Amino acid sequence: MIDTAGGAGGEGDAFAAIWRARVHQRFPDSQLRQVADYLATSARRPGTVTAKLDPYTVHRLLLAVGLDPAELRQAVTRLADAGMLTQIHDCAGQHLGVHTLTMPPHPVTSTLATDPGA
User: Fold this and answer.
1) Which pTM does this prediction carry?
2) What CA–CA distance (Å, rounded) separates 37 from 1?
3) Structure confidence by residue, pLDDT tens digits, 52-77
4) Nearest to 84 by CA among 37, 38, 20
């Protein structure tokens, strides 16, 4: 299991690397890629899949990616709508909250026969 609270191990780091790759695949020509890179590296607590978007982190992210605050909110919303980001703590408008890097499940198709006698 991935440690979201911040324990030992590199599971969170490995998951973040895979998460970045999935965002890059899903949004190939988009600033979302840059936002994802920042979330997975600079905003994320090492060893976890948690990113706290406090005012300091948001300011640095805006400078690094070249977005304005409204565009960043839109990018975070797009990632969340795509199932790539889940807000776990809302900070009542003080900042963008605490998020977990997530991945939507892949649809699984079976090649096995399910009908009797098939």
Assistant:
1) 0.77
2) 23
3) 999 999 999 999 999 999 999 999 99
4) 20
